[in-house]
Amino acid sequence: MSALAQQIGTPWKKPPFIKNAMLRMVLLVGFIVYFFMALNSMEVNWSRVYQGLDRGWKFVTAFAHPDFCSRASDIKEGMIESVIMTVTSTVVGIAISIPIALGAARNIAPLPVYIVCRFIIAVSRALNEIIVAILFVAIFGFGPLAGFLTLSFATIGFLAKLLAEDIEDMNKVQAEAVKATGASWMQWINFGVQPQVMPRLIGLSIYRLDINFRESAVLGLVGAGGIGATLNTAFDRYEFDTVAAILLIIIVVVMALEYISGIIRARVQ
Amino acid sequence: MPISEKNGTKVWQVRDRNGQLLRWAMWMAVAIIFYISWMKISDQTTWYFVFDAPRIAADIGGRAFPPRWEYIAKLGKPVWDTVNIATLGTIFALCMAVPVAFLAARNTTPSKTFIRPLALLVIVSTRSINSLIWALLLVSIIGPGVFAGMVAISIRSIGFCAKLLYEAIEEIDENQVEAVTATGASRWQVMVYGIVPQILPAFAGIAVFRWDINIRESTVLGLVGAGGIGLQLQSSLNILAWPQVSLILLLILVAVVLGEWVSAKVRGAII
Questions:
Q1: Structural domain of residue B4, as residue ranges?
Q2: Which of B144, B189, B199, B213 has its CA 20 to 30 A from that of B267?
Q3: What is the pLDDT of residues B78-100, one digit of tens each?
Q4: Percentage of chain B with pLDDT > 90?
Q5: Entry pTM
């Protein structure tokens, strides 16, 4: 018997993803226990869900005949507000995040500056846009200004972090060569560092423009301007045709932005 | 090399004249667009409130400052709900994202002309709508509660996970797939032994990354009635209970930082 087993060998088995058997079992059991605990604590009112299916179906069919017309002026106003919020906040956000990114790159900035800039980035990233918007609405009042400030603030965390990482990854030799010519600090940044990170900066800026537009669509829910307010009202009135129209516009704009950003990013890189 | 003459000596320049003009025109266009947009915002702003803002901010800060620590006893369940929304939402999203990703990837899709565009449409439409809007919609369809929040998070995550996953599938090493095919493996065996092992690390990374994002997003879903700690935030804001608001914000901050820490650790262990 053993001779036979020796001749044909034991069948091959796929190696497991997590090699440590003990850890694998603990993770698996822990996961299953948690999964069922979490499912149990979730109260689902199935009769309510069943009632709502009707409305859900109405929403789905609304996409077949979206109503752009009856609230056309509201939609147009909301969209314009969203767009101007997106544009201004992206411009201002980039303008602020470039110096912060320089400060947050360890190979350029001294330690105290580095710590301050990293702290700013961490704060900006940790706070959700909606929460920031609520605070800004409370402080600055309703309207697109609060939304503009929120998006600018959020842009700083995103752009400065990724840009700083790119600056830290840059080729030192080029920057050193520029420094060796006797360039001043500004010239060093401008001719040694900037050309290396420019493609990435352009790509990130366009990506952030895209994100800012998407975010501007929800800021209206808390009163910070943009298309979100119109959307919220339409939901409250169960005007699913209008909702479908607004969502379609958002999807189309996001798709267009993504397409354009793809082209531009391919060209600069 | 663009060179300009200045007092008879040649001076090096970065760009020639046309390039310089083009750049100048671009900056001008950006400046004009920015100015017009800014004027629109400025028109709709009550500047009196803005000038008053430092005082208001100080006032709110003063009211919020000692957070009402006793309130934390009431926040245990909402935090648990929030984490559940994020975790279960991520799990269900991954279950749906995997087939979509396989249908969308150029090298695994059954039909490039019919099914791939459909899968891409699913990815784009779920991705471009914020989870808060999904939550708003689902609350009006299936009623307020944790369940609506979970479904909203999972729908929103499908597109994100599927997009990253299908890019990972398209980047796999074809040689391994060919080698497995050459042994006479069936389509499914090729999938399990040729493709899946290659994308498993990417998959785990995506899962943890999205879970981290979902923790952030699920903290605010309560604002539209979809359960979690956002519900407490909303009610505290409505009664202007700033000490409670500051405590909740602090808790959210801790949750987000913890989530990021866990995800960074796990990703570091995988990759």
A1: 1-43
A2: B189
A3: 888 888 889 999 999 999 999 99
A4: 12
A5: 0.82
Instruction: Determine, yes or no, domain membership for B134.
Output: yes
B133 pLDDT more than 80: yes
Check whether residue B116 and residue B17 sit in a common domain. Answer: no
**Are A243 and A227 in contact, with CB atoms under 8 Å apart?**
no
Give the start-to-end residue ranges of the domains of chain A.
76-268
Give A-chain residues touching B147 at CB under 8 angstroms.
Answer: 42-45, 49
User: How far, in Å, CA of A92 to CA of B31, rounded?
Assistant: 11
Check CB contact of B100 with chain A, cutoff 8 Å: no
- Angle in degrees, CA B94, B95, B97, rounded to 5: 55
pLDDT tens-digit series, residues A55-107:
888 888 888 888 777 778 888 888 888 989 999 999 999 999 999 999 988 88
Asked if B33 and B89 sit in the same domain, the reply is no
Q: Does B233 fall in a domain?
A: yes
Burial of B176 (0-12, 13-18, 19+ CB in 10 A): middle
The CATH number corresponding to A76-268 among 1.10.3720.10, 1.10.287.130, 3.40.50.2000, 1.20.120.520 equals 1.10.3720.10
Residues 6+ apart with CB under 8 A from B102: B108, B109, B166, B169, B191
Tell me, yes or no, whether B14 lies in a domain. yes
Q: Among all residues of chain A, which has the CA nearest to that of B233? A: A131
DSSP character string of B90-101 = HHHHHHHHHHHH
Q: Chain A contact for B223, CB < 8 A?
A: yes
**ipTM of predicted complex:** 0.79
User: Does residue B209 belong to any structural domain of this protein?
Assistant: yes
**What are the chain B neighbours of A134 within 8 Å (beta carbons)?**
237
Q: Show residues of chain B in contact with A254, CB under 8 Å.
A: 124, 127-128
Mutate to test the interface with B, among A218, A240, A242, A255 (most CBs of B within 10 A): A218
Q: How many CB pairs under 8 A join A and B?
A: 151
Q: Is the pLDDT of residue A170 over 70?
A: yes
In whole angstroms, give the CA distance from residue B28 to residue B22. Answer: 10
